[in-house]
User: Which sequence fits this backbone?
């Protein structure tokens, strides 16, 4: 059930993002928004490189090789979702039409669903995840 829900979360994130692209509400002309989006993309790359050669799974599926707690994972449990949400949020903040906000809500809610599923599945596979979760932030340091 959790894997199926995680797929729905993934589809929602991607669907919301493509909805924003269709509305031209992702890439803003403002240098400040571009800077925030570039930082989000940098976080994404750092997290992906730290995660290593492990493959991405459409369904939330804990990978072999142990828990990754280095790089951005030292501070944030879901840095790739953080990067995606910050990137999308910056674009929405720059444009702000109602339809874009709706797509953003879809992205954020879907990311939340996916994080929930992943945390349940990773905790079942790696019991040390509980201790890691207690010393790291889920999405945004010092906030959540």
Assistant:
């Amino acid at each position: 059930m959790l894997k199926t829900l995680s797929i729905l979360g993934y589809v929602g994130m991607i669907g919301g993002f493509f909805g924003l692209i269709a509305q031209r509400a992702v890439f803003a002309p403002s240098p400040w928004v571009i800077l925030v989006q570039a930082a989000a993309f940098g976080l994404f790359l750092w997290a992906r490189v730290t995660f290593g050669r492990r493959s991405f799974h459409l369904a939330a599926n804990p990978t072999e090789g142990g828990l990754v707690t280095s790089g951005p994972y030292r501070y944030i449990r879901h840095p790739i979702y953080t990067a995606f949400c910050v990137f999308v949020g910056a674009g929405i903040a720059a444009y702000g039409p109602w339809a874009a906000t709706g797509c953003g809500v879809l992205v954020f809610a879907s990311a939340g669903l996916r994080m929930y599923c992943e945390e349940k599945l990773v905790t079942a596979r790696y019991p040390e995840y509980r201790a890691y979760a207690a010393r790291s932030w889920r999405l945004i340091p010092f906030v959540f």
Observations:
- The chain has a mean pLDDT of 88.
